[in-house]
What we know:
Elements: E1 2-6, H1 11-20, E2 28-32, H2 41-44, H3 61-65, E3 69-72, H4 79-86, E4 92-95, H5 107-112, H6 119-124, E5 125-127, H7 130-139, E6 142-144, H8 148-162, E7 172-177, H9 192-195, E8 200-202, H10 210-220, E9 228-233, E10 240-247, H11 254-264, E11 271-273, E12 291-298, E13 303-310, H12 314-329
Parallel strand pairs: 1-2, 1-3, 3-4, 4-6, 5-6, 7-9, 11-12
Antiparallel strand pairs: 7-10, 8-9, 10-13, 12-13
The structure holds NADPH dihydro-nicotinamide-adenine-dinucleotide phosphate and ligand 2.
Amino acid sequence: xxxxxxGSTGYGGVELYRLLSNHPNVDGCILYSSSLEGSSYAExxxxxxxxSHESVKPIMIEEMQQLDFVFLAVPSGVSKxxxxxxxxxxxxxxxxxxxxxxxVPGEYEEWYKGExxxxxxxxxxxxxxxEINRHAIREAELIANPGCFPTATLLGLAPxxxxxxxxxxxxxxxxxxxxxxxxxxxxxxxxFAETQENLRxxxxxxxxxxxxxxxxxxxxSSEAGPITFTTHLIPMTRGIMVTxxxxxxxxxxxxxxxxxxxxxxxxxxxxxxxxxxxxxGTKEVFGTNFCDLSIKADPRTNRVTIVSVIDNLVKGAAGQxxxxxNVMLGLDETTGLHHYPIYP
Length: 344
Ligand SMILES: NC(=O)C1=CN([C@@H]2O[C@H](COP(=O)(O)OP(=O)(O)OC[C@H]3O[C@@H](n4cnc5c(N)ncnc54)[C@H](OP(=O)(O)O)[C@@H]3O)[C@@H](O)[C@H]2O)C=CC1
Ligand SMILES: CC(=O)N[C@@H](CCC(=O)OP(=O)(O)O)C(=O)O
């Protein structure tokens, strides 16, 4: 099977290359770039010296259409045009950007400040949160791979929403991310001198993942409304921790909630429910496709705290994209994704 990566010189692209070049069903992994065509990939990424002999090609739509899978690891705004050109051909397309996730008219324009993808493209795109949408993903030709924060958040909340255990109006979502989430093109906000020894809140009440989370919560609960979601930048390379707080509808013990989470995720190899009283750190999923979850009820306040950690570049981007490819191919969804976390 031959696959292509567009935006191969970015962080999402190089992470896709790491995973796909070790995938047993992938014979050829073709690298496309809008900026570095002709150069060798190992020149661009010296950590691949002696390992990668690929050179980077210009974007070639007709060639890409004939591949088995094309992964779009380009910025929002760019993906929708490529997806449109690739649609209806041989290649199945997995888009890592935010272009194809929002279905409610007007929301993309409001949060991404650009024109939305055409309706026929949006209509074909299946939301690729694998654990929740596996059946639709299996039949899909075009996947809108979820955002990194929505992945961690929605996996943390799914059992509570689907089992009607919390009051949606009380929900607060507090997220922290490493710097690679901002992509390779370092901006002022990811400058070493601005970020080292610093903790910053950003995009307050304006984060583009807000409507993506709301869209899924509304599918789960008619009571779901606007959410409070805040993001913080912390001085580490990879990793996301999302801490969520909500009022329980009825009193519940930690042990009862823990049992519900365990049975909800029983058949999902990448979601690990931590033992009662143990909370995950981002390092414990580093470099892997795991999402680790903990839950604890507070009998004093009748609130619950949920903690979810992922590696933003793996479960939050490239890893989930490969997991989705596996589902679309009818393979075991862990194929090519059997990594232990890098620790310490
Ligand atoms: N970083 C993360 O943790 C996550 C990222 N994402 C999404 O994945 C996508 C890729 O992100 P990431 O790799 O981090 O970003 P980077 O900025 O690291 O890479 C994006 C790449 O896209 C290509 N590109 C940029 N502009 C254009 C253009 N006008 N036309 C064609 N290609 C272009 C460039 O590659 P080249 O020069 O080779 O063409 C660039 O290196 C984005 O949509 C991002 O939002 C989603 C979840 C998590
Ligand atoms: C640290 C940092 O800036 N992270 C980015 C991650 C978002 C992203 O990857 O963009 P999509 O909308 O395509 O999912 C952010 O918070 O905007």
